[in-house]
Design brief:
five-stranded mixed beta sheet, Nucleotidyltransferase, domain 5, homodimer
């Protein structure tokens, strides 16, 4: 299964594509779509949409996994983030690829085994699971890879979670494929 | 000047296109892009984007005026609204049309002459200014037309505002063309 993870943001949208074969993960793309601070807001949206559309066409994923944030942001930040998320989801929908969403807590629980894990722990686990020589940069790319790995773990409930204690996914962790509906 | 107004929303996105010639306004299109409650969120975004792209290509506006909301919504609603606004702005940006933004208060002040006017007053003024036999429906379409008229008024500072007292736009009401940057 090929999963394309997205960590959306107006200034920097991270992406990471992972091929999961059984218990193995392989990274086939990662990076971030960045805009200069001087770019107009609409130009930033254009760049995110066009960039993701090209990457999705190239990677041909089976699904797109995207981070979902509902809390810890005020209405203004949420509105701004919504624009980036909207054009990112549009790029996936235009390509006919199903979209799945996970909260940061779900990603941490699925990747590290603990929903309140530190960002550095998640990044270290991404490096380990993908067999990379270093943590992928920028951190938005690592976050996007974590969302992709999260979906791989949660869509295979019998697979052990790569957690410190080698814990298995609890039954409550299992989440069915759900079409994006914030 | 042809102005395409948008009142974005995930379930219903209002639009209205106005041609302003001197002190006269003429409506050339209005309506709403509606999605059924059962549609997936990504399908709603697809429909908004494709619908607006087709309308903008048909109307060939000189600019797109869009309502801007920063307050009176919680983070969750703002995030959801942001998705609709994002794909709406993308449709305009892809067509190479400049985007201008106005808050509801600015729209009311420019159309009715009073920033705290009731929704019904704004709709009645839209009907009057466009010489329509009735208030355009649904209300999202009337709101989109109001945003378009607002831009027409504010980009002609010497023109009298169609307010109850025939007041003129104050110097402080004048707002230069501003590229969208929430």
């Amino acid at each position: 299964m090929t999963i394309f993870g997205i960590d959306p943001g107006t200034d920097r949208t991270g992406y990471g594509c992972v091929v999961s074969e059984g218990s193995r993960h392989r990274m086939i793309a990662s990076g971030a779509i960045c805009s200069s601070a001087a770019a107009s807001f609409s130009d930033k949206l254009l760049k995110i949409h066009a960039g993701l559309a090209a990457l999705i066409a190239e990677c041909r994923p089976d699904c797109v996994a995207i981070e979902n944030l509902f809390h810890a942001v005020n209405a203004r930040s949420a509105l701004k983030l919504g624009h980036a998320r909207g054009v990112a989801m549009l790029a996936a929908a235009e390509a006919g690829v199903p979209i799945v969403e996970y909260t940061p807590t779900e990603v941490k629980r699925a990747v590290v085994g603990y929903g309140r894990a530190e960002k550095a722990q998640v990044q270290a686990m991404v490096k380990l699971l993908l067999g990379l020589p270093a943590v992928p940069t920028p951190h938005d790319a690592a976050d996007a890879l974590a969302v992709a790995i999260c979906h791989s773990h949660l869509s295979h409930p019998s697979r052990p979670v790569a957690s410190r204690g080698g814990r298995r996914t609890a039954a409550t962790d299992w989440r069915k494929f759900k079409l994006a509906r914030p």
